[in-house]
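Thread: Newbie trying to understand structure tokens

Hi all, I'm a second-year student working on a class project, and my supervisor (Dr. K.) asked me to get a predicted structure for one chain before our next meeting. I've only ever worked with sequences, so writing a 3D structure as a token string is new to me. If someone could post the tokens and maybe explain what I'm looking at, I'd be very grateful. Here's the chain:
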Amino acid sequence: MSNNVKKKSTIKKIIPYIKRYMVFVVMSLIFAAGTVGLTLYIPKLTGEAIDLIIDKGFVDFEGIFDILFKIGLFSLIASLMQWFMNYCNNKITYGVVKDIRDAAFVKIEKLPLKYIDTHPHGDTVSRVIADADQFADGLLMGFTQLFSGVITICATVGFMISIDYRIALIVIVLTPISIFVAKFIASKTHDMFKLQSVTRGEQTAFIDEMIGNQKVVQAYGREDETLEQFDEINGRLEKYSLRAVFFSSLTNPSTRFVNNIVYAVITVVGAIIVVGGGISVGDLTCLLNYANQYTKPFNEISGVITELQNSFVCAARVMELIEEETVTPDSESAVVLEDADGSVSLDNVSFSYVPEKELIKNLNLSVKPGQRIAIVGPTGCGKTTLINLLMRFYDVNSGSIRVNDIDIREMTRRSLRSSIGMVLQETWLKSGTIRENIVMGNPLATEEEVIAAAKAAHAHSFIKRLPNGYDTEIGEDGGNLSQGQKQLLCITRVMLTKPPMLILDEATSSIDTRTEIKIQKAFDALMEGRTSFIVAHRLSTIREADVILVMKDGNIIEQGNHEELMKLGGFYNNLYNSQWA
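---
Reply by user tm_fold:
Sure, no problem. This is what the structure looks like when written as tokens:
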């Protein structure tokens, strides 16, 4: 797709957002027309004042003072109208950008996990923050200078024709040369601005990644390598930015050069006409003022065109995000899962993240209500993938997963997920208080219920030691809490919801052995009567499971309880004994 087609496509996508502020657009146009009309009328008054200075001793002071009063009054009114015009333009610009950011964030909430897993988080952040800001700058300049610039050009031509059509014709014929110069330069800057924007997103992604994993970087002594990598990205950003700014900075001097030539031609021709008695000195002064006013918008518009190149690139990146395919919506006939009994069945389930790499194939499983299902196997065998499919973070490629004998694709995602409590190995806590993090799954929980859940998860004692107890503010991802403390809070969160089904994916991996034994007892009580899926590497923690699924290469190769699998003397037996070797 060519740059022009891309720009037109981007503009079409932006127009619906601007239409929401059409009242302010109309008001901006009215104020712009009023400001330009009054501003352009002032040179005409100035010319009339000059013509009242006839000769030494022949000056109409009364007429001059009257004109000066009008000039002062019109200047004041023009300034007020310009202020209102700028207010309208700001309202339009930042309203549009707010709506676009809202749409982008709403889209992020609806994106499938496949997108989140395959795109750098920093680049997504850059689109919503940095690219939206750059677009706002270009849009504001467009409204502020484009409207008034176009109106100024049209009105100035009218005023010049009313004084002398010959000079007006010279201005009209010669001045547009500056537009062609600006357009030629602008066409060369688009690619540089695109590279600049993409590299800025890459840099944001890298910084985000490094800040989030600074402990690992320092632990492995990778500071120098990280700096080199950052310098390389930063160097590319510098190169693209310099080229983009260099080419775009040629626009204004080039157009000013053309306009100065036009101004010189008008001065010479106008002087000849004055000498011949065609117009007065005041009229010539007025025409020169108009010629200057006429060329000024062309300089501004050329700057706007350059800025809009960057703006359209940034807008296109944000629009790409907004137009990404959302997760497949729930069908209109989707049922709400109520009172889940915990029965789960997988029938010939096949799934792969990428078509060319098969992961799970023809997987069958039948889980009775209240059973504890442990899932074990080597890394990469499909344990976490199975959890993703059960939660419907991903949909199966073929086959079906049924809960309460209903295909999970035929029920609403919200009702399915609210029926399953999940504690993962990777903890997640949001910025806010300890209490806000605990009640995330049950906002209506009472203080007594929160404390009871915290005590059951053995988190109450460490929470009370915090400066403000349950009202202690924590930063992003738990701030200074230890990994074990963060995991205890996540366990407390699921303890509070008491869902019909549970998924525990290495839920106690970051907790000390003594606390783990206590929490295991709490989990035993919580899992009583609830269907539970337990992913564990430490096989000692799942000996009491009703059924142990041994997975390898996406398939269940062994199935049974601990004693049955040990008697088989197969893969599970070897895996269990290797942990006690």
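A couple of things are worth pointing out once you decode it. The longest strand covers residues 344-351. The chain has a mean pLDDT of 81. Feel free to ask follow-ups in this thread.
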